[in-house]
């Protein structure tokens, strides 16, 4: 997008909404909504507090662990389902149910299983992120041109070579799309997990801010979280664009 | 019918003495559809044999059975006298839709067969470079398939098949996804290649002109179920200018004769 000859970043439409927020906030109509400038000020002071920093470390660590786990499990599972009919018949139903189920309802059960600590949060991230990764990987594997597989076989590819040199690469655009959507769901998972456990990381901060009606800080934390989710999604999208470029001529 | 093929046409010939590929009693059914019934064929070494027939005659199925990509329900395939049921290094396949890896450069695509065999990088790239030049793609080594035209992509597919140094090249309608001008050029190149490379070609096509133009031997298949209906050896002198062949009297006669034979299958 360009405006008055300058290149304006894609996020520019957000600016408009920030202005609207500022105005509504200044009018003092709803006490839940402080002016945007207050939120920004709160954000700046928030990131300097040790409690935010330690919460961020805790949250990031749980998020990264949960995501790594769901990628490591989800991608092979999706490939298996895309290649083996029996596996697809057995697991397909469950993956579909879990990918559309209200998973927040299951988080308390995780708490019983894994206790009030980080394990529960990791499990929540895993549970939120994995299903879309499995489904997209499966779709990608299903779309591989059969002649590409025949090509590998006719030139003597062993089974490991077939998977590592052909199938994984041919399905890569879909796998990355799945991971991108999984990351966004994983952010949801980490927050919901922490909110329900309510004593660690951002969950604890959210709990404190909303209980004490510290709305500026509450919104500041929300915005930081949104920004983080958008940022990683954007990063993956970059990688996707690169892969799509090479995969653009898929038959 | 089945075991013995009718041999008529311009020049009836005895069974070839040195056949590299021997197909015996091949049967194949897909569900209730009988794709191939009792195919017996010999493919002479160093020649280009076409499998020609209308769609649904099982010619691609037969080629893929020879390649070891499809399992026959009955019968055997022997290469150099050895029975085969799976792909092997003595055969290389050229695909109708090119089957190139879109994420890999021309160089890596061409060298892929050697990569799978564990040839070291320097060696396989040297070999690939030679065949890339051989098919007329020198300078395109670092391009990706989507940056090439259809004709060029199939040249990559051909270079890949040549670089593994197989005795038998199996080509499944390699020019059907290539535009007309490129096809002509490609056919001429194939004639040249067949003379230079001491290889056996088995070529599937549905184009009568193409089959007569390039083949030493044409196997006509009839559809539903696929059987060998006729074997023709066009006596065309291909030594001179390839352009001349299109006006050759034998060429035109053979095309006409095959068409008369195939007409009955066209509704």
From TrEMBL, chain A:
Signal peptide region: none
GO cellular component annotations of the record: plasma membrane
Protein name: NitT/TauT family transport system permease protein
A Pfam family of this chain: BPD_transp_1
SUPFAM superfamilies, per database record: MetI-like
Subcellular location, principal: membrane
Membrane topology: Multi-pass membrane protein
UniProt keyword Transmembrane, yes or no: yes
Keyword annotations of the record: Cell membrane, Membrane, Transmembrane, Transmembrane helix, Transport
Transmembrane portions of the chain: 6-24, 60-81, 93-115, 121-141, 162-183, 189-206, 218-236
One of the GO BP terms on file: transmembrane transport
Source organism: Mesorhizobium muleiense
Span of domain ABC transmembrane type-1: 56-236
Subcellular location: Cell membrane
Family: Belongs to the binding-protein-dependent transport system permease family.
TrEMBL record, chain B:
Name listed for the protein in its UniProt record: NitT/TauT family transport system ATP-binding protein
Protein's UniProt keywords contain Transmembrane: no
CDD domains: ABC_NrtD_SsuB_transporters
ABC transporter domain boundaries: 21-248
This protein's UniProt keywords: ATP-binding, Nucleotide-binding, Transport
MF-aspect GO terms: ATP binding; ATP hydrolysis activity
SUPFAM superfamilies found in the cross-reference section: P-loop containing nucleoside triphosphate hydrolases (SSF52540)
Pfam families referenced in this protein's UniProt entry, alphabetically: ABC_tran (PF00005)
InterPro entries for the chain: AAA+_ATPase, ABC_transporter-like_ATP-bd, ABC_transporter-like_CS, ABC_transporter_ATP-bind, P-loop_NTPase
Organism this protein belongs to: Mesorhizobium muleiense
Family label: Belongs to the ABC transporter superfamily.
Origin organism lineage: Bacteria, Pseudomonadati, Pseudomonadota, Alphaproteobacteria, Hyphomicrobiales
């Amino acid at each position: 997008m360009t405006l008055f000859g300058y290149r304006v970043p894609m996020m520019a439409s957000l600016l408009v909404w920030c202005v609207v927020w500022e105005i509504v906030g200044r009018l003092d109509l709803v006490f839940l909504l402080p002016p945007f400038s207050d939120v920004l000020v709160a954000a700046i002071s928030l990131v300097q507090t040790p409690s935010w920093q330690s919460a961020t470390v805790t949250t990031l660590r749980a998020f990264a662990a949960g995501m790594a786990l769901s990628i490591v499990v989800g991608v092979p599972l999706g490939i298996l389902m895309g290649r083996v009919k029996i596996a697809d018949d057995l697991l397909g139903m469950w993956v579909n149910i879990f990918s559309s189920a209200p998973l927040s309802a299951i988080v308390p059960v995780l708490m019983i299983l894994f206790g009030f600590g980080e394990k529960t949060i990791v499990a929540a991230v895993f549970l939120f992120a994995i299903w879309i990764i499995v489904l997209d990987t499966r779709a990608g594997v299903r779309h591989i041109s059969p002649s590409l597989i025949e090509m590998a076989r006719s030139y003597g590819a062993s089974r490991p070579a077939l998977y590592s040199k052909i199938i994984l690469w041919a399905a890569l655009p879909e796998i990355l799309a799945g991971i991108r959507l999984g990351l966004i769901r994983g952010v949801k998972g980490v927050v919901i997990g922490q909110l329900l456990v309510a004593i660690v990381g951002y969950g604890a901060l959210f709990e404190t801010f909303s209980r004490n009606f510290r709305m500026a800080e509450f919104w500041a934390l929300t915005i930081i979280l949104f920004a983080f989710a958008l940022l990683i999604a954007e990063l993956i999208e970059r990688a996707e664009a690169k892969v799509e470029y090479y995969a653009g001529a898929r038959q | 019918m089945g075991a013995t093929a009718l041999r008529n046409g311009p020049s009836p010939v005895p069974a070839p003495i040195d056949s590299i590929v021997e197909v015996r009693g091949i049967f194949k059914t897909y569900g209730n559809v009988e794709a191939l019934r009792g195919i017996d064929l010999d493919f002479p070494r160093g020649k280009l044999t076409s499998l020609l027939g209308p769609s649904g005659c099982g010619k691609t199925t037969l080629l893929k059975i020879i390649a070891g990509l499809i399992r026959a329900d009955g019968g055997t395939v022997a290469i150099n006298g050895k029975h085969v049921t799976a792909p092997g290094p003595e055969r290389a396949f050229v695909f109708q839709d090119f089957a190139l890896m879109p994420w890999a450069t021309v160089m890596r695509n061409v060298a892929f067969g050697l990569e799978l065999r564990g040839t070291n990088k320097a060696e396989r790239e040297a070999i690939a470079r030679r065949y890339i030049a051989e098919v007329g793609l020198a300078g395109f080594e670092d391009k990706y398939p989507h940056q090439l035209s259809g004709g060029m992509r199939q040249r990559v597919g051909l270079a890949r098949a040549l670089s593994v140094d197989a005795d038998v090249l199996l080509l499944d309608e390699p020019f059907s996804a290539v535009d007309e001008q490129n096809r002509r050029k490609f056919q001429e190149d194939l004639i040249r290649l067949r003379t230079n490379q001491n290889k056996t070609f088995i070529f599937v096509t549905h184009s009568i002109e193409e089959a007569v133009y390039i083949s030493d031997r044409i196997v006509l298949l009839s559809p539903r179920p696929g059987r060998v209906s006729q074997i023709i050896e066009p006596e065309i002198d291909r030594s001179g200018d390839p352009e001349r062949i299109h006006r050759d009297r034998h060429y035109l006669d053979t095309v006409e004769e095959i068409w008369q034979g195939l007409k009955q299958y066209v509704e």
